[in-house]
Specification:
The protein is globular, with a radius of gyration of 17 Å. Helix content is about 35%, strand content about 25%. The strands form 2 sheets. The protein has a 7-stranded mixed beta sheet with strand order 5-4-3-6-7-9-8. The chain is α/β, with parallel strands linked by helices. It has one domain (about 10-225): Vaccinia Virus protein VP39 (Rossmann fold), CATH 3.40.50. It contains 9 helices and 9 strands. The relative contact order is 0.15.
Length: about 230
């Protein structure tokens, strides 16, 4: 495997490198057909771990075509709010089609780069973020650690976070394929940014298949209710 450039193997053609979303716009055309069944069980586990409450606002990023909406939206139907964020026009178009098809009035999909996503922008659709859902994002975000920090900053004190992704320290042929298709780097220890800041942190393996290219992990934790400074004062 070549060196990682912006989180992408250097042997991936530069035409597809982030921040351009051209490849993800193309990928959106067959994303659901190829990946829905592969990740549906993991999405259900992520929803159970996140434990969305009826009045919660959940931030789902990157939301992609909205596959996680299928499990998150019903849990928030009684006064809750689900906000999906993605940078790809193609992914968002399909996410919005999913919202319209299901008649979800409490779900919105918006275009933004997580690195520049401001609280004020989110407040136009939801006053607070009670839970953060990051599914297959940490392996693909170019500036993944800063992306997580930005998303974590948007979470209210005491808020919950679940991160699910694939990890392989030494990817094989299928792992290289996943990296190439998803413009990802599954060698990242993607759970560490959450582990470093969360309370009640835990990580577990999820059932994985060869097509995943590595081991699926679910990490979860809670944002401290008060900062260390405030606690010690």
């Amino acid at each position: 495997m070549g060196a990682v450039v912006g989180g992408i193997d250097s042997d991936v053609p530069s035409l597809y490198c982030r921040p351009q979303m051209g490849w993800y716009d193309v990928f959106s055309c067959f994303y659901d057909q190829t990946l829905t069944s592969l990740y549906i069980d993991a999405r259900r586990e992520a929803c159970l771990a996140l434990d969305p409450r009826p009045k919660d606002t959940v931030l789902d990023l990157p939301c992609g075509t909205g596959q996680s909406f299928d499990v998150l939206a019903p849990a928030l139907a009684d006064g809750g709010h689900l906000v999906g964020v993605d940078l790809s026009d193609g992914m968002l178009r399909r996410a919005k089609e999913r919202i319209a098809r299901n008649g979800w009035t409490h779900v919105q999909a918006m275009q933004a780069d997580v690195l520049s996503l401001e609280r004020a922008t989110l407040e136009t659709v939801a006053p607070r973020v009670d839970a953060l859902h990051v599914f297959l994002g940490m392996s693909a975000f170019p500036d993944w650690e800063n992306a997580f920090r930005r998303a974590w900053d948007l979470l209210v004190p005491g808020g919950r976070c679940v991160v699910v992704d694939v990890y392989s320290a030494a990817p094989g042929v299928q792992g290289h394929m996943v990296n190439a298709v998803a413009r990802a780097d599954i060698r990242r220890r993607f759970w560490e940014p959450l582990e470093n800041v969360a309370e009640d942190y835990s990580r577990c393996e999820l059932p994985s298949l060869p097509d995943h290219g590595g081991q699926l992990y679910l990490a979860r934790g809670r944002k401290p209710a008060r900062s260390a400074t405030a606690t010690g004062s």
